[in-house]
Structures are given as C-alpha cells and as structure tokens.
Amino acid sequence: MNVRFDFSGKTVLVTGAASGIGRATVEALVKAGAAVGIADIQGDEADAFAETIRGQGGAAIGLTLDVRDAAATERAVEMLEDELGPIFGLVTAAGLSRPAPAESMSEASWDLVMDTNLKGMFLSCQSAGRRMLAHGAGAIVNIGSVNSLGGFAGRSNYCSSKFGVAGLTDVLAIEWGRRGIRVNAVAPNGVDTPLVRQGIPPSFVTEVLDDRTPMGRMALPGEIASTVLFLLSDAASYVTGSMLRVDGGLCSGFYTHRQGADLASAALLRDGVYSE
C-alpha cells in the first residue's frame, strides 16, 4: 500500500492487536509515526510484538487484556497513558466467532461472542473515550463486518454482536461529536488471515467467498488497516458515525449457486453438522 498518514506524537490503543487486522493496523500506525499500545488476551504475543517494534526504533507497549473485563481495561488504558502519553486514538479489533446453527447454539457460545465482540468493544470505547473527552480530542474506529449489515448462516451470535457494533458506533458519534471525538466503524468482507483460513473450509473460499465478491478475492489485512488509518486521520475530520464498507463490492449485491446456505465453518463440517 502506498497510502501515507502522519501520526507522529500521537498515541493509539489497538485491541486484538497481536494478530490479523489488529496486527496489520499496529504495523501501519508505527510506520506512520504513532506510539502504539498493543492489547491482546494473548499477552506474551503482545509483549513480543511490542519488543520487535521497539527494536526497530518504534514506540510500543504490550498490554495483556481481556476486553470483557472492565477493571482490566481501565488498567490497560491507564498504563498506556503513563508509558506513552495521552491517548488520541482507539481501534477495537478484538473479536471472535463461535459458529453453530441457531437451534443448537449454546448459551455459553452466545455469551462469549457477545461479551467479547460487543461488551468488550463498549468497555474499550468507554475507558478510552473518558480520557479523550478530558483531552478534548480523539478518534475511535470500531471493527465491524459486512455482518453488521446482513446475516450469515450459523452465526446468530456473531451477526448480532456486529449489528450491535453499528448501533454503538452511531450512539457514541452522537454523544461525543460536539466534544471533539469522532467515532466510526469499518465493515470488512472476508479478510485473508490465518485465523479465517483455519475457520472456514478451503472450498468455501474459492467456490463461494471469491465467487460472490465482485473483486474476486478476500481483503488483505493491510487493506483494512489503511482504511482504519484514514478514519483516524485528519483526512476524515468531518467523518463520524459512519460504517465504511471495505468489502470488495460484496454488499453491492451478490448471487451464487449456494445463495448463502453453506454454514461456512470448518469446525461444523468436521463435526458432521452439515456437508458441502
């Protein structure tokens, strides 16, 4: 990517930052001069990533964080400001999926996904937002999904949480807009990360996902990261309350022979819940 932004002197917290979209966002922010808090439930991986960045001359701190824990979130944000200075930006990339047909989805699976993807996002926005409000400036980018806009078989928990991301983003934009804080979200299509590749059958990628996407492929993590940096930057100074689709044209309308009936889960396929 050739997009260039300047975040010199700015501190940004990224949750879910040890892998996937979060990791790509951290890499892009560091290249743009930001000091970055790398928050992840996998604390050892967050620390190792931060150490690598510092070894390359960047400013970063690793933070072990379960975003479902309000007290831990407060401690992480406080530590970030103590180490790297006042927080300017937040990117909420922490999230997970636990697919199952709606009729057999467990309460534990529902709660885990909702608590991580939506409650955890709210707690991160609340903790960082309080400090941004005190500083009188800031920008937040929440990682939603095309499933913030429409459903996906086998993922009633995930889609409900991502619809919630859209609502939360709108409300925070309304409440905080006059107080100097912009709040936006991105809605990616499938993103080509190891976790996504592990979670869906290979045939679904080629026969369904690529087929129904006008650009004919999944997004690269860096393509999502560059959009996140745009929304954090002054180039988006009059953008708030938006859910920006980064979907390769998917939501413009897709038609495939499967018509969305495939549950698209490697785990459920192995367990015999459905067949290809």
Largest sheet: 7 strands, parallel
Cα radius of gyration in angstroms: 18 Å
Q: Give me the CATH superfamily.
A: NAD(P)-binding Rossmann-like Domain
What's the β-strand tally?
A: 7
Estimate the global geometry from the Cα principal axes: globular
Structural class by secondary-structure content:
alpha/beta
Poorly predicted runs: none
Level-2 CATH architecture? 3-Layer(aba) Sandwich
Task: Work out the strand percent.
Answer: 5-15%
Q: Would you give the CATH topology?
A: Rossmann fold
InterPro entries: KR_dom, NAD(P)-bd_dom_sf, Sc_DH/Rdtase_CS, SDR_fam
Family: Belongs to the short-chain dehydrogenases/reductases (SDR) family.
Pfam families: adh_short_C2
Protein name: SDR family oxidoreductase
Overview of the structural elements:
By secondary structure, the chain is α/β, with parallel strands linked by helices. The protein has helices spanning 20-31, 43-55, 70-84, 107-135, 156-176, 194-199, 202-212, 221-232, 266-270; strands at residues 11-15, 35-40, 59-64, 87-92, 138-143, 181-188, 243-246. A 7-stranded parallel β-sheet has the order 3-2-1-4-5-6-7, sandwiched between helices. Helix 3 (70-84) runs parallel beside helix 4 (107-135) and helix 4 (107-135) runs parallel beside helix 5 (156-176). The longest helix is centred in the middle third of the chain and has 29 residues, at 107-135. The radius of gyration is 18 Å and the shape is globular. Residues 10-197 form the Ketoreductase domain. InterPro entries: KR_dom, NAD(P)-bd_dom_sf, Sc_DH/Rdtase_CS, SDR_fam. It holds the Pfam family adh_short_C2. This is SDR family oxidoreductase.
